[in-house]
Each structure stands twice: as C-alpha cells, then as structure tokens.
Design a protein that fits this description.
By secondary structure, the protein is α+β, with helices and mostly antiparallel strands. The protein is built from four helices and six strands. About 25% of the residues are buried.
Length: about 100
C-alpha cells in the first residue's frame, strides 16, 4: 500500500476510472486508481498532493453522489488521519501523544 493512497467511498457503481481521474485533476500525479464497486483507491506520487486532495474533496459530489475522501486505513506513518493507530498505545508510538 502506498503511503499516499486515498480511499474514496460512497461512489456510484456507474462511476468509471476516468471520472475519478477527472475528479482529482489538478492535485498532482496519480500513479494508480483501483475501482472496487462503490469505492476506489487512488495513489498519488506525493503525500502532500494526497493531503491537499483530502482537504479539498472530502464531502464533495462526484457525479451527483457525496463522497468520502480520506487516507486509506493502514497507511504507515499516517497517524490519526490515516487511521492506522487502532489503540492508545500504537497512537502514542506513532505520534508521541498520550491519551491517558
């Protein structure tokens, strides 16, 4: 899994790869798009471009459907935003934050 992989959820099954590519146009070089039915994974060449895309596109509409755009779960080094920290101990190890 790419450290710059985004999850795009809530898309219609009629959405095609070219629609996703157009949706992310202007946010940097996309290295891969993987369509999975009503969601997709989009890999960016640069983490900063992926971060900008999450900020700008989460909650926007793609062909009429409001979509979720977030870092894919399990991305190493994404901390809270990527969702790879599943408990307080791993969150502390990744971010230095103590939630106790």
């Amino acid at each position: 899994m790419s450290p710059s992989q985004l999850y795009v959820g809530g898309i219609s099954r009629s959405v095609r790869e070219r629609d996703v590519e157009k949706f992310f146009k202007g946010f940097g070089r996309i290295t891969n798009i993987s369509m999975k039915g009503n969601y997709a994974f989009v890999d960016f060449d640069d983490h900063r471009d992926a971060d900008d895309a999450v900020y700008e596109l989460d909650g926007r509409r793609l062909l009429g459907d409001r979509v979720r755009v977030e870092f894919a779960k399990g991305n190493p080094g994404m901390g809270e935003e990527g969702g790879c920290a599943k408990d307080e101990d791993s969150l502390h190890l990744q971010t230095g934050m103590d939630l106790r």
